[in-house]
Amino acid sequence: MGMHNEREGVSPQSVRAATGERQAERERMVAEQIIGGGITDTAVIEAMRRVPRHRFVPDTVADEAYEDHPLPIGFGQTISQPFIVAYMTQALKLKPNDKVLEVGTGSGYQAAVLAEIVSHVYTIEIVEPLAKRAEATLRALGYQNVHVRVGDGYQGWPEEAPFDAIIVTAAPDHVPQPLLDQLAIGGRMILPVGKFVQELVLIRRTEKGFERTTLLPVAFVPMTGEAEKKKAAEQN
Q1: Whether pLDDT at 150 is above 70
Q2: What is the rounded average pLDDT of the residues 60-72?
């Protein structure tokens, strides 16, 4: 490629030749929404420039793939607006050799963005058809460093812990303890928290415990499965 590779942790197949499909739209999205929105991490910007977002959304909304808003992907789930994907990714301060857990695979788009930056992505989706579709899309695009599991992300992926970073793309009303437990010392977790009003929260694990920072108000679909059951149990 004739360029020095700062992304040694990334498997070669993710530095594949860009298909060029809708590249002009991606460039515009990056210029206006990502850089224009204040994102400065070059690895994140390059990932957003490379990943073909239109391949991760249903054909019915593919025309809107690079617009500045979330899109429905079926089963009551959405793909976040591009800026939020970039913002959450940048907040994790990822390094090439990081091992990342994603809770809520959805379309697989966020996993692809992560896979452009880090060496290993583990992603869990509770809706089986979505997980299968995301896995097929990721495989078709050549991502071999993403591991997809069907299941309840509340419990994380204990056998692969600890993780350098954890990203949650559905909102529980509290921070799941199993996810805190699976964060490495020095690790970062970002997630939306709240029932009616949600806030994006960044948690950093230190030798002494957890530091929590509230970043900005957001609107995500609620986390289902165990997070929902815990909420219901507390209400009864």
Answers
A1: yes
A2: 95
Amino acid at 159: E
Report residue 47 as tokens: 């990932």
Residue corresponding to tokens 């993710």: 14
Q: Are strands 183-193 and 146-150 parallel, antiparallel or unpaired?
A: unpaired
Residue at 118: amino acid letter = V
Catalytic residues: 80
What is the rounded average pLDDT for all residues in the chain?
90
Tell me the C-alpha to C-alpha distance, in Å, between residue 178 and each of 66, 69, 114, 200, 207. 35, 31, 22, 19, 18
Q: With respect to CATH, is domain 20-235 assigned 3.40.30.10?
A: no
The Cα–Cα gap between 128 and 126 comes to 6
Of 9, 7, 17, 4, nearest to 142 (Cα)?
A: 17
Q: Who contacts 214 (Cβ-Cβ below 8 Å, separation ≥6)?
A: 199, 200, 201, 202
Residue 10 has pLDDT above 60, yes or no: no
What mean pLDDT do residues 126-138 have? 96
Pairing of strands 183-193, 198-206: antiparallel
| Domain limits, the chain | 20-235
